């Protein structure tokens, strides 16, 4: 009980310092809990949606996916004859069966030709209004569609795009563009995660999406009372026979949830990874806090030992303080985590994915994980200072208010740090010189971890050297105040090293990712300049395909020298070595693609691959299967027939664009695909006649104005789009890393604040002999800047080393240009100095307000 009282007294005696450490724990726990609550809420939302929208049993056409998606490479959904509905109705246990048709391969536009499709990646669905939808949608205004000129839209989409009854809407499908006016608006009875849904009457939907009536994509089956879904499925299968996909409501929901979870898990574990980085940085803060508090209480600890307290009791006293800190920070962090989750939901709402707080899900495991992580991390971080406190002998502590230095321990630490750093450097060297990316990536990971640990361990040694150099460059110009700031930073190299290491971790990751991202952009730009011989690239948005009427619009543009179509598909290959390779990618293109993309070959001429019944393979594929020029490969096209194609060219793997692609001609593909089964274009390339590039660019944009899902880019546009995409990804990562940097800044603040308290008597004496408040504040600010710049130098240097090594591995994939983003590096370095100034504001202000006499009288 005495130990507990002592711990409580010490905890509240330093509540200001503890508060800063608690904030670090709070932020880290909040990020973990916020991530868990957010992803659990998304899972709950989708679970409710899938369960509510699925009928007892769903019958789909052969070729439909398990998730019910009706997209296909032909642009038309797989369909079945209307007679299937009658057969299903005759099955035992069926109360109702209704045929529906819908598709996600549609672009919807308003009267101004603006897209009504979501920007969040959610689908745009156009389908027939049916009884199953009537269960989950409520018509809030107008009526359901009753003719070819009517369409009903969901309320969320109508609100977002300011649609009202009577507005014109165009639906662009592979069949053509169908126009209708809004006849009604329907609201979801469950949360809509962001899909845009448009309803037509059944006959109009069939004509618009498929081009003919008398067909359905799905049959929704309602079970008679008392009939289980599993039994109903068996009865329907017995009535229909094979050739159809029959699923229960649970199977449809599970398939949909599986596809959603694959996305959510990537996001979840990425965010938890950044939370882990914040925890790691927080460990340095907590270690520093308790180390300094223990050092300040050395004489008090000596008195406790002198009157009978054991080492274990002293140790336990410090750990109880850490436990209190961990519990307080974790409890507040759990609450803040729920707030973060709500904030993320609002942010997703701005992006078009609607998540209702009614579905907010806080599982019991979330606060449990948050509390457990926060407490364990805090107690573990405080263990070393607590152990050091317990080892202080009573007489030594009573003689000196400061903790005695352990020269032997410092030497051992320096040796271990040097060995770890050397081992990490060797690992990075092995990674950079690896012949295969897979092997090199393992060495890269090992090198990153060991160099990071090595720099942390060797931090005091590096601080002693680098701070002197920084002092000579930055601080000496400030005269005696600068020299005092330098001596203060050098007074305890271990503390300076730990504080700088906290900042180093976040900045090392920033530098590494900046180098990798910049090198990827530079390499891709270099490849575009060397290999792309076309003027314009036409591509669709949201993984759509380019429809025939859109290709025709491109070909009608005057001033074009050539237009090249590009159609990837899949096939089962049987190679000369007898191996069967399922679902292998092969691309059909016009012969002019050999000019549009100047792909190097190691054998043959790529133009020959576009001859009838011919193809190309890439070098690795040829080596793996013993293929040479003239070899025959049996190619069973998906949804088509089987061809025996002759290899006319072997392309080099030394490329980035279309790396690993295998080509054949569109004429060859058309020969083995029946009418209506030919895949649509994924891309279209166009080149202008000499001297007409500007006019052709403008004409292309004009010709495709009615198809807003298509984007026309010249090479400059394409490079900018690539840079913007990577830049957006990096900005998001930098935003997540900001959490770790904020925690590191708190560490600098805490270190300075405790350092000021530790030097109270010294500060009083300096003030007494003439040091002004302004000079005192400047001294503390300069000390802070040096510590921040020291951490920035370590982090940026380490990160650039990691990034350069990673680029060497990317070079094996064709990304051969190393580009150091010096503007970013310099900006981060300068910003670090400002971080140091910011961190010193409060400690410097408090130091300046000290009463001189009281400070001198401090023991």
Automatic annotation (TrEMBL):
Residues 274-394, 736-851 form the ABC3 transporter permease C-terminal domain. Residues 59-74 have a biased composition (Polar residues). It is found in: Cell membrane. InterPro entries: ABC3_permease_C, MacB_PCD, Macrolide_Exporter_MacB. One of its GO terms (molecular function) is transmembrane transporter activity. The chain crosses the membrane at residues 269-295, 318-342, 362-384, 414-432, 452-478, 499-522, 732-757, 782-802, 822-845. Residues 19-237, 499-698 form the MacB-like periplasmic core domain. GO terms for cellular component: plasma membrane. The keyword Nucleotidyltransferase does not apply. It is a multi-pass membrane protein. Keywords: Cell membrane, Membrane, Transmembrane, Transmembrane helix. Residues 59-81 are annotated as: Disordered. Belongs to the ABC-4 integral membrane protein family. This is ABC transporter permease. It comes from Streptomyces fodineus.
